[in-house]
């Protein structure tokens, strides 16, 4: 019951964003850009400014790459079996290989474990954004009629502000540059990041329309994202020399729904946008059922 009570405030905030968008018809891109280019970079800056780099960062990177490529490999195998086109395969990759650990996972970790788990969650968020802005953009562009994968991915990486936030935070830490009273301003903006990105996700979900759903593709994406992904994650992290809390966060993050950014990529590059957006919406709603199970198993047996 306590797990449900943890999820309810999160979905309440999503719901506020959803209702605000349905009734007010706000420009979601403005709020999304505010979070992406202002709030989150300062949140990432603060994390990397405060936290020293150690060997756990390497393990987190291995985990993220291993999980992503394992899911892409499974998608490729299933696409061969089902006879999917390259565009359909790329759309399925976008629907199942990238987790929503920004809008969903990081707030969830905050509710579950408090600030003690936020450092790990934010590092995973940065790594996931790097993967989405490289591999995610690559597959979105690869499945499009223009097929501009590598160039589009490189352009996207150069525009990722949270990466620069991490770099600047590390430089400030290594050079021992004090923030002084500016630190209070950084804290105010950084603390606003999580609520804003949660509301933004609710607004983005309100813009998704379910039409002509391909149920086989959707069920495949949901199975891979919500059930297979945490199993793969468990297999990866169980042998890593990390503390139990970090392992639990990694497994829980793997069970988060389809990343909202992949919907934007799919729409931008015309790569199965209907199927990808459907996977984002339905996986987010379905996680109300699957996430409590994953949280219970991860926190009980890991």
TrEMBL record:
<keyword id="KW-1003">Cell membrane</keyword>
<protein>
    <submittedName>
        <fullName>AEC family transporter</fullName>
    </submittedName>
</protein>
<dbReference type="InterPro" id="IPR038770">
    <property type="entry name" value="Na+/solute_symporter_sf"/>
</dbReference>
<feature type="transmembrane region" description="Helical">
    <location>
        <begin position="91"/>
        <end position="114"/>
    </location>
</feature>
<keyword id="KW-1133">Transmembrane helix</keyword>
<dbReference type="GO" id="GO:0055085">
    <property type="term" value="P:transmembrane transport"/>
</dbReference>
<feature type="transmembrane region" description="Helical">
    <location>
        <begin position="162"/>
        <end position="182"/>
    </location>
</feature>
<dbReference type="Pfam" id="PF03547">
    <property type="entry name" value="Mem_trans"/>
</dbReference>
<dbReference type="InterPro" id="IPR004776">
    <property type="entry name" value="Mem_transp_PIN-like"/>
</dbReference>
<feature type="transmembrane region" description="Helical">
    <location>
        <begin position="279"/>
        <end position="299"/>
    </location>
</feature>
<keyword id="KW-0812">Transmembrane</keyword>
<feature type="transmembrane region" description="Helical">
    <location>
        <begin position="61"/>
        <end position="79"/>
    </location>
</feature>
<dbReference type="GO" id="GO:0005886">
    <property type="term" value="C:plasma membrane"/>
</dbReference>
<feature type="transmembrane region" description="Helical">
    <location>
        <begin position="222"/>
        <end position="242"/>
    </location>
</feature>
<feature type="transmembrane region" description="Helical">
    <location>
        <begin position="120"/>
        <end position="141"/>
    </location>
</feature>
<feature type="transmembrane region" description="Helical">
    <location>
        <begin position="188"/>
        <end position="210"/>
    </location>
</feature>
<keyword id="KW-0472">Membrane</keyword>
<feature type="transmembrane region" description="Helical">
    <location>
        <begin position="31"/>
        <end position="49"/>
    </location>
</feature>
<feature type="transmembrane region" description="Helical">
    <location>
        <begin position="6"/>
        <end position="24"/>
    </location>
</feature>
<comment type="similarity">
    <text>Belongs to the auxin efflux carrier (TC 2.A.69) family.</text>
</comment>
<keyword id="KW-0813">Transport</keyword>
<feature type="transmembrane region" description="Helical">
    <location>
        <begin position="248"/>
        <end position="267"/>
    </location>
</feature>
